[in-house]
Amino acid sequence: MNISEQQLNNMMSAVTTALQPLIRALPVTPVEWADQNYYLPKESSYGEGEWKTLPFQIAIMNSMGNDQIRTVNLIKSARVGYTKMLLGVAGYFIEHKSRNSLLFQPTDSAAEDFMKSHVEATIRDVPCLKKTFSLAGT
After folding, report:
1. pTM (whole model) above 0.85
2. Is residue 2 part of a domain?
3. Number of domains the chain contains
């Protein structure tokens, strides 16, 4: 049986397309994901730009994103980047691990403010999240 080069290319293309859903990204930690993908929006940050995890944030973020850790208790001061860590880990769950995430606020108005000032800006400024949410129709 003789197969032409064109037929072979078509077959390889079809097999590649069929196998695409089985391809998974290499595992990364929440810190690695945030350092590669997360971006600080100008509306909700002291400084707009790429996220760089600070040394004291590494264990916190990796604990938040660890499947073996169910609860993370944290005593913190103000202005340590806690909200940004939460959003970075939520982005990691949504984009890298393909999981749903839910963040609570104490009141409806606080939730609306949080959505407008933090979540919407994050989705807009982090390309992989923007792509994920555009595919979801939001």
Report:
1. no
2. no
3. 1
